Amino acid sequence: MSNAPLMPKATAVWLVENTALSFAQIADFCKLHELEVKAVADGDAAQGIRGLDPITNGQLTREEIEKGQKNPDYRLQLSVSKVRLPPMKPRKGPRYTPVSRRQDRPNAILWLVRNHPELRDAQIMRLVGTTKTTLAAIRDRTHWNSQNLSPMDPVTLGLCSQIDLDFETAKAAKENPDAVLRKEAPEPEETLLSAEVTTARDGDGELDVQSVFAKLKQLKRDETEEDDEDDYRRR
């Protein structure tokens, strides 16, 4: 037997008082030491403990007791309960967050929004135990403490486990691969244009050499006239 009956010492008291089972049989059934059962019988132990009938609570049958009383080597078998409890259904809704961790929730939400844009609102709510109103306020930067928020990993804060985060992100990546690609794609860097591009003329026409020389001659002529005017003024 690997399971002990409910309230083993009280059950041992009842078996000692109401059956002819040996101390070894009672000790084996109740998962107690044989000397402890003997002390119960002698009144040295379990004083003030009221005996618990294992037949009434369905842990033992009268047939088992009769078999044990007829054969001292027989080991009593604990009856299997006929009451079947319904399986516990997984709790739906946001995850419970301890009071000491609730002040870190907005920082975790901001971290998830920035680093995992593929996550849906329902997934973020499951991970950190937030509400849709708080999540929307942080997304829109209308949260009352937006200026003081700093993104922090929810796993580091103890708001969720790494396994849960990996599961949700992998699920979101399958449902929304475009968001993952946008997140991973590097933003184009702004660079200076080369001199060839900035000095290139519009159009594909060839440079007019004669017009260039004509402009140069005009510039020299203007400079000569300015020098002559300066000399005249000095005189």
Written overview of the protein:
The termini are far apart. The chain has helices at residues 8-18, 23-30, 34-42, 62-70, 105-115, 121-128, 132-139, 154-157, 162-175, 177-184, 195-198, 209-234. With 235 residues, the chain is an all-alpha fold.
The average pLDDT value, as a whole number, equals: 78
Order of helices and strands: HHHHHHHHHHHH
Structural Rg: 44 Å
Unreliable stretches (pLDDT < 50, length at least 5) are none
Number of helices: 12
Distance between the termini: 131 Å
Instruction: Please tally the β strands and state the result.
Output: 0
Helix/strand-derived category reads mainly alpha
Helix content: 40-55%
The largest sheet, given as strand count, sense and whether it forms a barrel, is: none
Strand content: under 5%
User: Which word captures the global form?
Assistant: rod-shaped
What is this structure, in a nutshell?
This protein is mainly α. It has twelve helices and no strands.
Which structural traits does this protein have?
single chain; 235 residues; mainly alpha; 12 helices
Task: Write the topology of this structure.
Elements: H1 8-18, H2 23-30, H3 34-42, H4 62-70, H5 105-115, H6 121-128, H7 132-139, H8 154-157, H9 162-175, H10 177-184, H11 195-198, H12 209-234
Helix pairs in contact: 1-2, 2-3, 5-7, 9-10
